[in-house]
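WARN retry 2 of 3 for item q-0093 after timeout on previous attempt; input resubmitted unchanged.
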Amino acid sequence: MLLRVLVSAALIFRAECYFAEEKFPEESKMQPPTVVIAIIARNAAHSVPYYLGALERLNYPKDRISVWAATDHNSDNTTAMLREWLTVMQRFYHYVEWRPMEQPT
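OK item q-0093 returned
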């Protein structure tokens, strides 16, 4: 009889959670780690808006994202597009580093 009760209790407990981690209390409310996203673009004016839009829609706290952006030797509007976006959005991100190079050194 006792064995049946223990087995049924074990099955009921097992049925309540699918993964072993679900048995434990919720994780601590620590901040997620700061991540760095590098944007390296050259003559990419046709795709920069899509890339930046995807970056804005990331499901991650923006104050935990650092952005490092570099561009050089563009013959299109890539530099101006990145500069404008970074100027507007830098206040939302943890840190923004802008490295443009107009003329080769």
